[in-house]
Amino acid sequence: MATVTTPTERPSAMATFCEQIRLQMEKRKLTHADVAKEAKVSRAYLYRILDGKQIPSMKVADRIAASLGLVITTKQAR
Question: What is the full DSSP assignment across the chain?
Answer without folding.
Answer: -EEEE-TTS-HHHHHHHHHHHHHHHHHTT--HHHHHHHHTS-HHHHHHHHTTS-PPPHHHHHHHHHHTTEEEE-----
